[in-house]
Amino acid sequence: MDVTEITRNYIYLFIVFLPAMIANGSPVVFKGKNPLDMGKNFIDGHRILGDGKTVEGFIVGILAGTVFGAIEAALAWNTRYIAIGFLGGLGAMLGDVAGSFIKRRLGYKRGHPVLILDQLDFALCSTVFYYLYDIEMNPISLLLIYVTIFLLHILTNRLAYKTGLKNVPH
Ligand code: CTP
Ligand code: MG
């Protein structure tokens, strides 16, 4: 595989993953109140997901991904991007929940930083949905996208912390 092909697929994947990134960031802006786990504990005595995962945030994330996908669809004149937006948003929100589930099982409280999991849980789950939707991805471009998302996540979360949008910088 040549550099041109890797670059082309990287740019395409960046556009495809943008709705998932928007979805992941939007609950931070529109914070919810009702925890998805309804305040319940798991069998290990720790919260199932914790107060950081709310119903409102989950829905807002899917909506934001879908709306952004619709904008991409209009710009690219290709309706596939609407589905990409929805699937990216849904995958991101499910991955985010899965990440918190794992963090709680490890005994970490809400907001405790876990490197890689915090930055990439949503992207990994979105990848599964995109793959099932036959999105073309080559391994090298995908790896570069993960590195990009990892760095962007750290940057945007620090910004959100500095502007008072988040209580913790991760
Ligand atoms: N959020 C939300 N609903 C979601 C996801 C996120 O309301 N489904 C909001 C919460 O206010 C949360 C913030 O977005 O605190 C940041 O999300 P995230 O960093 O994923 O959650 P944490 O608070 O760090 O919790 P965890 O330790 O479970 O990751
Ligand atoms: Mg966090």
Folded structure, characterized:
This protein is mainly α and 170 residues long. Helix content is 68%, strand content 0%. The protein has 5 helices and no strands. The chain is globular and about 50 Å long. The mean pLDDT is 97. Cytidine-5'-triphosphate (CTP) binds next to helix 1, helix 2 and helix 3. Magnesium ion (MG) binds next to loops.
Count of helical stretches:
5
Helix share of residues?
A: 55-70%
Beta-strand percentage range: under 5%
**Rough outline:** globular
Spatial separation of the terminal alpha carbons: 35 Å
List low-confidence stretches.
Answer: none
Question: What ligands does this structure carry?
Answer: cytidine-5'-triphosphate, magnesium ion
Average pLDDT figure? 97
**Structural class estimated from helices and strands:** mainly alpha
Radius of gyration: 16 Å
Count of strand segments: 0
Helix-strand topology string: HHHHH
Biggest sheet features? none
